[in-house]
Design brief:
Rossmann fold; 2 domains; 9 strands; about 20% strand
């Protein structure tokens, strides 16, 4: 893009959106070892949480169906609402949808133990929001095996924080910038500080959410359209267009030195763009 050329930046995109037509981007990386662990523990139902357009629940429901698990999803939404295309898919793939209030949803974040729902279902396996866990991070870390260059900066979208954590660990010589896709993501800083401990090569940007998850503004719409026109493929507006917005802002403000190399991880998520 012209802005990057002007500032003599070398920007590569790793297209994890091409990993799978349904379980695109970082979703399969985060679920891979979690499903293996559930199988090892002889669990039969996977349980997790997400919002109306959750890429995580969408990927989880499909994976559960393919691997022979039952699935349950706690949804932060009103039960009388019309289902989004993502939730319709989840339901079609056999996921039980349980709607919950914002307050109850926030409480669901508190306990990350895999067996937290054993009182209701002894053979269940709990997966935290967005899949954040040591096993999810382990899956994300495998990205380094597919990258043969050194980068000064690595940019990615952030939902649960697992991708940011994994990239921080496997790219210790890079500054990893995570761009939160939703409003109110400041709580993730405490979680990531505790998890990453001595790692200091990361930063969470919380000012590019454009009003919240699945929210857009005119600048974001123009940016996404310009990118598609220039490159010939689309990026989602839930995560990756917001990453591009942050990256361009960093460059414009001189926060990235001329001549730097940047890796942008395309985490997928185009399914969330659907209207039907």
């Amino acid at each position: 893009m012209a802005l990057f050329d002007t500032h003599q930046l070398h920007v590569d995109m790793k297209r994890d959106d091409l990993l799978h037509p349904i379980i695109s981007g970082n979703k399969w990386r985060k679920l891979k070892y979690l499903f293996h662990d559930a199988e090892q523990k002889r669990c039969k139902t996977v349980v997790s949480m997400g919002g109306n357009w959750s890429n995580h629940l969408h990927a989880l429901a499909f994976t559960a169906k393919e691997l022979g698990f039952k699935s349950t999803g706690y949804i932060r939404a009103h039960p009388k609402q019309e289902l989004t295309p993502a939730l319709k898919d989840c339901q079609d793939w056999g996921m039980q949808l349980l709607f919950t209030s914002r307050g109850d949803y926030a409480q669901l974040r508190e306990n990350t133990n895999w067996n937290r729902f054993h009182d209701q279902c002894k053979e269940s396996y709990w997966i935290s929001e967005g899949g954040f866990s040591e096993l999810a991070v382990q899956g994300v870390m495998e990205i380094a095996q597919e990258v043969d260059k050194r980068y000064d900066y690595v940019f990615c979208g952030v939902g649960s924080g697992a991708t940011l954590a994994g990239l921080t660990k496997v790219f210790p010589d890079s500054q990893v910038i995570g761009v939160a896709a939703f409003k109110g993501a400041e709580y993730l800083k405490k979680i990531l500080n505790q998890y990453l401990k001595s790692h200091t090569n990361w930063h969470l940007e919380t000012g590019y959410h454009c009003g919240g998850f699945a929210k857009v503004n005119s600048q974001l719409l123009v940016l996404a359209q310009e990118f598609e026109t220039y490159h010939g493929f689309a990026i989602d507006k839930q995560y990756n267009a917001k990453v591009l917005m942050a990256l361009q802002d960093y460059v414009s403000k001189g926060l990235i030195e001329k001549g730097s190399s940047v890796l942008w991880l395309n985490t997928g998520g185009l399914q969330g763009e659907r209207t039907q």
